[in-house]
Specification:
By secondary structure, this protein is of the alpha+beta class. The protein is built from three helices and eight strands; from the N terminus they run ααββββαββββ. It has one domain. The chain starts with a helix and ends with a strand.
Length: 135
């Protein structure tokens, strides 16, 4: 068999391969990834609710909200685990019945704040995590 026949057959085989439709899962995966101010990114396990920037006197306050089907401490472990891999340390600012507030610090990066609010619906817990920092 001549070499160019093999090349044509290989091209025909590759031409028949189609990429699987992964658009819905890609969109969900991308929503769970937060791009941090230090150009790193973290992936969270919670369900992304919304993200937005709020203009203030210092520039912009970047805000992200996630929902977790669990209590506040478990949701905070997800965020802290991701930030710890990027060199952040944490300090608990408030810990009471209604909210759990934590600040995350990294040298030469803005402080990241997070407020975890747990709600009880019947016998199930739901925590809303509000993650924010100043740009």
């Amino acid at each position: 068999m001549k070499p160019y026949y093999i090349f044509i057959v290989l091209l025909a085989l590759l031409g028949g391969c189609e990429k699987e439709s992964g658009a819905p899962s890609t969109a969900v995966t991308q929503a769970n990834i937060i791009q941090l101010n230090d150009s790193s990114s973290i992936k969270l396990q919670g369900n992304h609710i919304k993200s937005h920037k709020k203009n203030n006197e210092k520039g912009y306050l970047v805000m992200h909200e996630f929902s977790y089907p669990t209590v506040d401490k478990v949701a905070e472990n997800d965020l802290y685990g991701a930030l710890k891999k990027n060199g952040y340390n944490r300090k608990v600012v408030a810990n009471d019945v209604t909210k759990f507030k934590v600040h995350y610090y990294k040298k030469s990066s803005p402080t990241i704040g997070a407020i975890f609010t747990t709600q009880t619906e019947d016998t199930q817990y739901k925590t809303i995590a509000s993650i924010y920092w100043q740009e």
